[in-house]
Write a structure and sequence with these properties.
With 119 residues, this protein is an alpha+beta fold. Helices cover 16% and strands 55% of the residues. It contains 1 helix and 10 strands; from the N terminus they run αββββββββββ. 20% of the residues are buried.
Length: 119
């Protein structure tokens, strides 16, 4: 019985510690411009717009908006942008409750996967 109680206590502590490391995120789906979104999750909110223009015959994608940290927790609100034309995603972070960072990114192509998370 005592062993079972100790095991339960250890599992409870692991669940609490593990729960703080979990990243909350919005679903990630590719969007083609024109597109806009304003997700809110626990600890973060953001808004962004994808716009396309042809510049000298090349399709150009603009991602504009902002991301804001809405909770005092030592974590950062993060918008991750994975444009089809880039081999790696870019991030814009807002760290510290009430902090808002602007998003102004430019890519070639017409689509990108944009998501909001807390890390």
């Amino acid at each position: 019985m005592r062993l079972t109680l100790s095991l339960r206590a250890v599992l409870a502590v692991l669940a609490l510690v593990g729960g703080t490391a979990v990243v909350t995120a919005t679903p990630a789906t590719a969007a083609t411009c024109p597109h806009s979104d304003s997700p809110k999750i626990d600890g973060a909110e953001a808004t962004w717009t994808l716009k396309c223009k042809k510049v000298e015959g090349v399709e150009s994608l603009y991602v504009d908006g902002w991301v804001e940290d809405t909770r005092v927790d030592g974590m950062c609100a993060t918008v991750t942008i994975a444009a089809d034309s880039k081999s790696y995603p870019e991030e814009v972070q807002a760290c510290g409750s009430g902090t808002r960072e602007q998003i102004h990114k430019f890519y070639t192509g017409r689509s990108a996967t944009v998501k909001l998370s807390v890390r």
